[in-house]
Amino acid sequence: MDTMRERFSTVTAELLDQDPRTALVLADIGATPFEEAQRRHPDRVLNVGIREQLMIGVTGGLALAGLRPIAHTFASFLIERPFEQIKLDLGHQGVGAVLVSALGSYDWPTGGRTHMSPGDVALLDTLPDWTVHVPGHPDEAETLLRHAVADGDSLVYVRLSAHRNGAAQPVEPGRFLTLRQGGRGTVLAVGPMLDAVLAATEGLDLTVLYAASVRPFDAAALRAAGHTDVVLVEPYLAGTSNDEAHQALADLPHRVLGLGVPRAEHRHYGTMDDHLRAYGLDAAGLRARITAFVPQ
Predict the structure, then answer these.
(1) CA distances from 67 to 2, 46, 63, 64, 152 (A)
(2) Mind listing the pLDDT tens digit for each residue in 179-206?
(3) DSSP H or E segment with residue 197
(4) Burial level of 98, CB count in 10 A (0-12/13-18/19+)?
(5) Rounded to the nearest 5 degrees, what angle is found at the Cα of 139, between the Cα atoms of 116 and 269?
(6) Residue 101 and residue 286: Cα distance in Å, rounded?
């Protein structure tokens, strides 16, 4: 089966053929799959080289010209490096775009810290009006990407990863899914964390919600779960969505535990599975921390 990133390449090439408003901006990384699309649409597939700030500036210019641009590179180079341009050339200019990342928090540990971006979603949270999708499967990535490109002139971030779940869920942008119901608390699994959460909570009296879209945060679904003990399991910086959960339950006495990638660096990079174990994001680590927070 293809990866999320491979599905992105296939679907984006189709969208470029089907919709003359769609454009793609690259910064060398990930350009090879689009060579044929660039030959067909040289005015709408632009590779600016390893100049990520320019990539976002060109993306903003295309949006000002009435196109629906997609910008793509690794998360650390898409969000962190050109953050000022995201803030000014997109947000301040009042134009929309779709930013599609790869590698995420720990996908390519041998690339080192420069290729890890656990803080990307938290950083975007400092800006208004961003929709953020975190698919956990290539099928979900396709659904959310197509919705993002068709979504008028909005600002959308689609966070792709090599970390994935075994099966796709019937995701709907902006909505959480209820996969299990229990009486002691709620665990919200974000994107590729779902399989580990399901394994970690097997046999426990807990509701499990699934989120492939995290911004806007589906506060109604969290409230509808009916619990005031909430655990958030995110594949990026721990606690990124804690404030969203606190706001959703602001009128109720409640507790929130945010699990994810810690702020401290693990400098022995190992494999992606090594990172997940080190962060306590494998099934065993999650079960230990969840049951300590919500005793069964």
Answers:
(1) 28, 13, 5, 7, 10
(2) 999 999 999 999 999 999 999 999 999 9
(3) helix 194-200
(4) buried
(5) 20
(6) 26
Q: What is the pLDDT of residues 124-180, one digit of tens each?
A: 999 999 999 999 999 999 999 999 999 889 999 999 999 999 999 999 999 999 999
Structure tokens at 138: 């290539």
Could you please report the per-residue DSSP string of 49-108?
A: -S-HHHHHHHHHHHHHTT-EEEEEEEHIIIIITTHHHIIIIIIITT--EEEEEESTTTS-
Distance in angstroms (rounded) separating the CA atoms of residues 11 and 141? 10
Mean pLDDT of the chain: 96
Tell me which of 34-38, 232-236, 262-266 is least confident.
262-266
> Letter for the amino acid at 230?
V
Instruction: Give φ, ψ of 284 to 5 degrees.
Output: -65, -45
Who's near 249: CB < 8 A, 6+ residues apart?
Answer: 222, 223, 228, 230, 256
pTM for this entry? 0.97
Both structure tokens of 111: 């690339």
